[in-house]
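Backbone shapes recur. Consider a single case.
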Amino acid sequence: MIKKYFLVLIVITVGLNCFSQDSIPKNYFQSPLGIPLYLAGNFGELRSNHFHSGLDMKTQGKEGFKVYAAADGYVSRVKISPWGYGKTIYIDHPNGYTTVYAHLQRYKGVIAKTIKQHQHKKESWEIDWYPSDTLMKVKKGDVIALSGNTGGSGGPHLHFEIRETETEFPVNPLLFGFNIKDNIKPLIRSITLTPLNDTSYVNNKRKTQRFLVSGSAGTYKLKYATSIVAYGEIGIGIETIDKLNGYGNRNGIYSIELSQNSTTIFKSEMKKFSFDESRALNSLIDYEMYLIQKIRFQRSYIEPNNRLNIYTEEKNNGVVHFDKKDKNAFKYVVKDTYGNTSTISFPVTGGYDKKQISSILKASVDTVFSYKDSNYFTKQNIALSIPKNALYKDLSFQFHTADTLTGAITPTYFLHNDYTPVHKPIYVSIKVGRLSEYHRSKATIVHFDRRKRYYSKGGTWRNNYITAKSKAFGGFAVMIDTIPPKITPTNIYANKNMAGNSTITVKIADNLSGVKSYRGSIDGKWIIMEYESKKAKLFYTFDNIPKGKHNFELTLTDGVGNESKVSIPFTR
């Protein structure tokens, strides 16, 4: 009896292991488009401050293709925004996955009607709605929308995702068996070696060294027969992209493995990730080099507070220690989702030449922040609060002030620099001299970046300090915004007959604090006005407006409460 029990247990355990290793259902989901699939972007591609969480499916440079439900399920979420994903549908499926369809032009059928009713109920075009599981059920192949270019899209396409419903982790859709042709091996363009402390060197230098490579069709080597000599704690990185058949877009890599003398010291795989971790992409890449040179190197070493779950193997966090006269053979193996593979092997010798090492003048440091703790800094009339786990490694923090920005009422306080990424927002508080209540209500903290551009961050008052949060270090100052936003009607004027127009369209703009809200109405009744942020315009599509005289009104409010209003009579 005991033997039989253990035999059953072994069979169950083996079965569970097999299931866990191959639990992704192949061919369960159909394509959301009825045209051949070509990708403008793939899963895990490196984007600004995040990984790409799905597939960007090309739509032949046009909008209006039918978008189909990939499987049976129900609409679990609808989000409409002028930013990000634009018009989006989320569908939950009984197999534990959720599919996401983004940048849609418009919704179709019962879904369109139900969403419109909800917008009118809330009197808001922008919504983030979680309807009940019985309200909008769909069958596999149902037309749910038309493809578009809404939100932050850079051109017509469909952004498609598959997520785990329970965790909301996006999963690589290419693992689900979609028919996308790809026999192109990843491209390797260069590698880097980075000294990680003051006693480490690469070719007798204390800064990152980039080494170009040559080759093709999956086989690469160092260009110019370059020799590499390193000493101390060194991090190695690679510049690599993937391409798919049919188009020349730069796509992300599925797997990167680095070995030292035939032993794997680092491996990453892009199967799935957490949105909470996605910003740690800025720790995966050499962030400063990206900002300066627009080159994304993927580090094959892990900074202390980088908690990405894409790392599957590591030895000493991928950091390599070189002693004098060490001889090491390194090899990168880079793969895409379909197993197309490229490699590069390169030797590195341990050592340095003390005579050739130039002395580097160390920058002054105001304090050192620990990534393990929350940190607080105050000086002059500014205070900085950094939450625990906001930094990826300890930071040698620097501070200085500069002349006041034109229009600012405080000096510009430079809190370190924006070449150092943060995982969580930091909080900046600036003390301001005596202001009237009116001007306090119009005050906003602005962030000043390395390109001398500034952006409003808003702010709340406590005593004489105004506080705002920021996702980057850099310069900060306080400015006053008393200028109302601007409304410019483009196809309507007083007493115009609008019978020949399908929409009312206006351009909008604001000088500093940004558009916060708007409300459009006809004859006092709220109307759905869509905000197309890329063109800075609002538009209303005529719907059941009877013939006769009418009045269009629009009120626009900026981030500090300045308000503009237009009232235009028209006929139809």
